[in-house]
Amino acid sequence: MRPLTVITLLLALPCAALAATPAAKDDDFEPDEPLRSLALGPLPRARAMVSGDVGWLRSGIGIGVGLGAALDLVLRIDAMPLYEKGLGGQRELQGGLRFSPIAEEDLRLTVQVTGGQVFISKPAELVSFTTVRGEILLGATFDLLSPYARLGVRTMSRNVEGADAWQREEEIGLGVERVLGRFVVGAEGYVLARPHRSGMGQWRLRVGYAL
Asked: pLDDT exceeding 90 applies to what percent of the chain?
C-alpha cells in the first residue's frame, strides 16, 4: 500500500464517524472534561485514548490512560515502514508517564518521560539498545484548532568496543490538532537534530480515538 493511500485512510476515519457522534452534551448529566488532545495531557481518570501516526521517519501506535492527579500512563510501539520500506528494520517499544502541571481551560503544559528498547534486525542477529526520551510541550486548546510546540531529547545507549556509549538526538516541532467527536486528528512538522550533523525536516500525521 502506498504512503499516500495510508495517510488518506487515516484522515478519513474520523470524518466517517461523525454521523454517529451526538451533536451536543447535556450539561446537567455530563461532567465537564478537558478537551481531548493527542499531544497534551491530561486524560480524564480511568479513561484511555488509542492513537496511530504516520511519518516519513517514524510511524507507530500508542495508548494513553488517565491515572488522575494530572498523570497519564503512555505506551508506544514505533517502526520505520516508510523510511525503510517495510517492517523488517528498526522497531522501538517504550513506556512512561506524562505529567501536566498546567491544565487550565485553554493553556496546557505537559512533561513526558519514557524509556524503552530499540530492536534492529540484521541478517545474522537481532541488536537492541536502551533509549530514554524526555519531552516538554506547551499548547492551547480551542474548539476549532489546538496548536502546540514540542521540544524533545532522546538518548540511546549503544555498545561501542565493549563499552556503553550514549548518543543523543533532539526534536523541535510545531503541531496542530482538531477534535472531531471522539476522534482527534493532528499534523506536526519538526526538525530532528543530532550532534555534528545538520538538522533534518520531518513530518507526521496523527489520529486518536477516545475510549
From this structure: 61
Residue 52: which of 175, 201, 186, 202 has the closest Cα? 186
Going from N- to C-terminal start, the domains of the chain cover 3-210
Rounded Cα distance, 169 and 131, in Å? 11
Helix (H) or strand (E) holding 37: none
Residues 63-78: tens digit of each pLDDT: 999 999 999 999 999 9
Instruction: Evaluate if residue 96 carries a pLDDT over 70.
Output: yes
Distance of alpha carbon 136 from alpha carbon 92, whole angstroms: 20
Q: How many CB atoms lie within 10 A of CB 153?
A: 13
Distances (CA, A) of 82 to 4, 106, 133, 191: 11, 35, 22, 18
**126-to-58, 80, 91, 122, 177 alpha-carbon distances in Å:** 19, 16, 11, 6, 37
- Return the CATH number of 3-210, one of 2.60.120, 3.30.43, 2.40.160, 3.30.160: 2.40.160
* CA distance linking residue 196 with residue 201, whole number of Å: 16
pTM of the model: 0.80
* Residues contacting 33, CB < 8 A, separation 6+: 44
